[in-house]
Specification:
Two copies of one chain form a homodimer. Chain A has a six-stranded parallel sheet. The first copy, chain A, has a two-stranded antiparallel sheet with strand order 2-3. In chain A, helix 8 links the parallel strand 4 and strand 5. Chain A is built from nine helices and eight strands. The first copy, chain A, is of the alpha/beta class. The first copy, chain A, has three domains: about 40 residues, no CATH class; about 140 residues, Rossmann fold (3-Layer(aba) Sandwich); about 40 residues, no CATH class. Chain A is globular, with a radius of gyration of 20 Å. Helices cover about 40% and strands about 15% of the residues of chain A.
Chain lengths: ~240, ~240
């Protein structure tokens, strides 16, 4: 285990490699020479404009954004709350979940609440978070997009999560889906997630997506919705222009 | 897409950060200060020996090995070959697959061959590769072990692969299982894999696990079996001692 002291700082500050992806930072010293050789060879055959386009798309590698599913692109808690209210005759709302998970708010029935998630179809019909499709499609032009979900916590959810992604994000290649547990295994420049625990050992910039349960978390880069994600990356891009 | 020119070099040479994990390389400048503060506080309360043990296990973070499943810990091609021979009345052996995949050796029935893999139970009863359990259990004492499989290529395989891992590698936590597609998303110091394509953009040291199909690949660090993996990491550890 990596102690928090070693990594806690990274998710809380802006990355220092402005304008360079993790790839470029780690791999470029060798790559740069190769790129120069290729550049000199290829410009003999390509017009200036054509080469400019190729250079942008290949030699200047894309930065990578990893995106969580539940409570970030899939409205997990709306369905969970609805099922809970139906089963237990309550009328809890998102307001009641401020600073809580449903199972910490009602610990006496935590097992029942969590077992709802084991149903193989629980994750199949979650609503898509507003604007997430549009903004992710937009980001996919300038970034490599990966979906990274802690599906190992609910192995019964694999098929439903996969089918949900294929239905609602058909423009993302499934080779870019990652079902994992410990997200410190993710090699990306950014991770958009609603759980701060995933930022502890994450190598890039953590971006906390606001959800009722994380409303009191402080000290993280925070976005409140997908329009806010769009704004964040527009500003980041402006800050990175030479 | 990242061009091969940028990354091709990395999987072919030993990592330059001898003795330091990727964590330490990326995160330590800040972490080192925190560790020193903690060190000074904690040695007041801990005996020298106790502190030494803590320091080794936490402040000196473990390096991480990611391990592929098929043809590395699970004997994929033995079963595939057997099913093929049964269905097509042939008697092909591993020898016939030197430099080939079954579907490239018999391209006229490639669709039939590949569709065998879509059966939800195909991956459930593969044999465990000799010595893999023992050597991985041994490595798990000094490294963080992750299992990284390109399961997104066969979404019907999720449940079978998960259950197979829980049965045969019960000592590995399932939060360390990664079902992905493009393995460049894996953040680890080493990747043991039988497919060289996964090394192209991998950030750490690729280690090619010998299989019939990759027998003619050259220029990679190669291990021929799990005893060879054990030897590789023993030598690596010796080389890293101060």
């Amino acid at each position: 285990m990596i102690p928090n002291v070693v990594s806690a700082g990274t998710s809380r500050r802006a990355p220092s490699r402005r304008g360079r992806s993790l790839w470029q930072e780690r791999l470029l010293p060798a790559g740069r020479c190769a790129a120069v050789v290729i550049s000199q060879t290829m410009t003999l055959q390509l017009g200036k404009r054509q080469w400019g386009r190729m250079e942008r798309r290949t030699v200047k590698s894309l930065k990578r954004i990893a995106i969580d599913m539940d409570e970030v692109i899939a409205d997990f808690s709306e369905k969970h709350l609805r099922l809970y209210n139906d089963q237990f005759g309550e009328s809890l709302t998102a307001e009641d979940l401020r600073g809580h998970r449903l199972w910490t708010l009602r610990p006496q029935v935590a097992d029942d609440i969590l077992s709802m998630l084991d149903h193989p179809l629980f994750f199949r019909d979650l609503s898509v978070m507003p604007d997430s499709q549009e903004v992710i499609a937009e980001l996919a032009r300038d970034y490599e997009i990966f979906i990274a979900t802690a599906a190992m916590e609910r192995p019964t959810s694999f098929a439903a999560k996969y089918e949900w992604l294929k239905e609602h994000f058909p423009f993302l290649p499934d080779k870019n889906f990652v079902f994992c547990g410990d997200k410190s295994i993710i090699y990306a420049d950014y991770l958009i997630d609603d759980s701060v625990r995933h930022f502890k050992r994450f190598v890039g910039q953590g971006i906390l997506f606001t959800a009722s349960h994380n409303i009191y978390e402080e000290g993280y880069v925070r976005v409140k919705d997908w329009q806010d994600v769009r704004r964040y990356f527009r500003e980041t891009a402006r800050g990175e222009e030479p």
